[in-house]
Fold this protein.
Amino acid sequence: MRFDELDLEDEVLDGIDAMNFQEMTPVQEQTIPIILDGRDIIACAQTGTGKTLAYLIPMLMKLHYAQGLVPRALVVVPTRELVVQVCESVELLTEFMDIRCVGVYGGTNIRTQQDRVFEGVDLLVATPGRFMDIYYNGIIRTKMIKTVVVDEADRLMDLGFLPQLKGIFEVLPEKHQTMLFSATFSEAVESLSRDFLNNPVRVEV
């Protein structure tokens, strides 16, 4: 199935086209329509199957354009490298869109990252620990976050990030859409989905 067969905005399609993608991968074909429909989802897909675009494309459709100062979408990943990768994908996809993406992660100057968040952000990409650090410093306001992705959920569990993940979900608005992506359906990931997802659609690729 081709991306232009979906009911996507022209600016999103132009970004996809600029990345030289036309055909969807299986994970994209199965998950994008569900996400666009507003359902919670738990998807099992290996790295390299196109899952980053599978959640970014519908997320950008929901954001439309830059507005306000506080984040409206959140992507949680386990490592600094993944924050950088997701932000790079957003930058490529939004070549024809006005969307502000900020990545925050540990091991670097927190003040610089806080300044960028404070200046205004639509999509925030974060490691769990750094998200909570900046939140407790009063910089991240979560009241407008309506879309949440937990990517590499199994690695997050393996690295012991469950307490921080619980902390993040405790400060999110009660009504939001959650997407859980994982390479495996471990017991810890299953438990996570039961605790934080609302009647999710399950997709396995």
Notes: The two ends are 16 Å apart (CA to CA). The mean pLDDT is 95.
